[in-house]
Amino acid sequence: MAIAPELWRAAFAHRRYALTLLLAHLAGAATHVPAALALAATLTGVAHRDTSLVAAGAVGVVAAAVVRLALSAAESRAATRLGTAVTVDVRDRALASTLTANRLHDTGTRDGQTLSALTDGVDGTDVYVTRYVPAVVTVVVICPAVVLALALVSPAAAAAVTVGLIAAVLGPVAWKRSTRRRGSAHWDSYEALAADVLESLRGMKTVRVLGAVPAVRARLRARSDALHRATVSVMRTSLADTAVTDLAIQGGIAVAIGLAVAGYTGPGAGTFALYAVLLLASESFRPVRDLARQWHAGYLGLSALPALRALHAFDSSPPPAAQDAPAPATTASVAGGDPPVLALESVRYRYPASDHDVLAGIDAMLSPGALVVVTGESGAGKSTLFDLFLGHLSPSSGRITMRGRTPGPTDIAVISQRPVLFAGTIRDNLTVGNPRAGDAEIRSACAAAGAAGILAEWGLQAPVSEAGTSLSGGQRQRLAVARALLSGRPVLLADEPTSALDEHNAAQVMDALRDAATDRLVVVVTHRLDVLSPLDRVFLLRGGTLSLREPAAQR
Ligand SMILES: Nc1ncnc2c1ncn2[C@@H]1O[C@H](COP(=O)(O)OP(=O)(O)OP(=O)(O)O)[C@@H](O)[C@H]1O
């Protein structure tokens, strides 16, 4: 028996559906007892040529079957509702945590792993709550009840069945740890294969160009073999489980029947007692047999638990980014109010694993009016500074404030080095941060971002392929600037926004950002000094400190 408290809590969060399911399942399982007794009466009637007893017994058997059919329909309905409610909860929470912003340049998880947890892992929880949970409850409630009924007919047979039940339920516990270990090894292999397949599909063009197809194929084959070995290993444990359970069940039934036969007192009441013991002994084990069957069905959900826990799928409160964000400003320009000024006061930052500060006490006031540019050598700490602005990292000491408060994720829009567009239309991509933006607003943001030509050529409804591969790097970059402008956020951070662009396109994007900097704070990190203008405020990040460069020194 594998009890996963999170999954039980997830099920009972929907108390009505969970209780309906349990009651329907328990009642359905309970009908097997009167059915067995009715069958014992029928058989006794046949043995004694008592047609009225045969008829009464047959009616009982049919009535129990009809009731069970009705209960089974109610159980299916409740299971569908409960399974849907639980998987929606679990998937929503896991998705919310997946969609929480991570550091700009590093993330510890692989997309394929996350995808497997969100799909197969979550589906596994459905099977666990709708089939395994009722099976466990039925073992706990129905088995003792049937044993009690059996004890009324034959205490010795009931004792034999009790021993068999204990062995059947507790036997597999002996190698529980090994079962768990093999289960998580199986899930890890499954996730690793999924992650490699997704990565290979995404990088297929590069793989082909590099002539690396055979190497990738070999890696996937090795992953697939590892998954096969892990699956076989799980099957071995499960076969051992089944063998122990079956041995205990068959042994319990055989001893109970032997005792019943030994105590047979001859025709009359003894015949009914004999049949009742034969049938009830078998019925006592029915819930255990069901449990063993459902164990295999719910196993994937159980082994996916660590991955789902890592995605906070069972946390009671949603992660901060999943909470409702304030609605974006309704125009492409920033809503009125004081200008957004980012104040950095003695900001220090040191990575936990490092022995020195990346940022060693930065003081600066960054304000709109001119483009703010941060430049510096590779490794100087520019991305670290952005992560601090975005709240992905917290200063080791000092503070960053915007109008006296800590800037929130919804204050800042980011244009990354490799902007990601999504499958959909150009319009969908532009309005992702501001779904209420109208056509006029979109066109004016595109004009400001130097993307008017793209709209003129393609139109707002033109389809964009996954990851925006149907557009050139420059087109993606300009649409990303338009998208950031449309989001109406008061601060815009651009990380190397011209790295993929030729001189002409780079100048266009920088001009768009300069225009945007009139009414919002625009901070650009770049190595390219050729795209700067004498009007830009250029800061040099070196040795952990930020210093303003003279305009003359910019080129
Ligand atoms: N998670 C981390 N743990 C320890 N050190 C880190 C971590 N991330 C970055 N660093 C170190 O911090 C320093 C600053 O890194 P950062 O990525 O901020 O530099 P950067 O200026 O953005 O570099 P580039 O221009 O190459 O992107 C580097 O020396 C880097 O090795």
Automatic annotation (TrEMBL):
GO terms for cellular component: plasma membrane. Transmembrane segments: none annotated. It is a multi-pass membrane protein. Its main location: membrane. It is found in: Cell inner membrane. Keywords: ATP-binding, Cell inner membrane, Cell membrane, Membrane, Nucleotide-binding, Translocase, Transmembrane, Transmembrane helix. GO terms for molecular function: ABC-type transporter activity; ATP binding; ATP hydrolysis activity. Gene3D superfamilies: ABC transporter type 1, transmembrane domain, P-loop containing nucleotide triphosphate hydrolases. InterPro entries: AAA+_ATPase (IPR003593), ABC1_TM_dom (IPR011527), ABC1_TM_sf (IPR036640), ABC_transporter-like_ATP-bd (IPR003439), ABC_transporter-like_CS (IPR017871), P-loop_NTPase (IPR027417), Type_1_exporter (IPR039421). CDD domains: ABCC_MRP_Like. Belongs to the ABC transporter superfamily. Siderophore-Fe(3+) uptake transporter (SIUT) (TC 3.A.1.21) family. This is ABC-type transport system involved in cytochrome bd biosynthesis, ATPase and permease components. It comes from Rhodococcus triatomae.
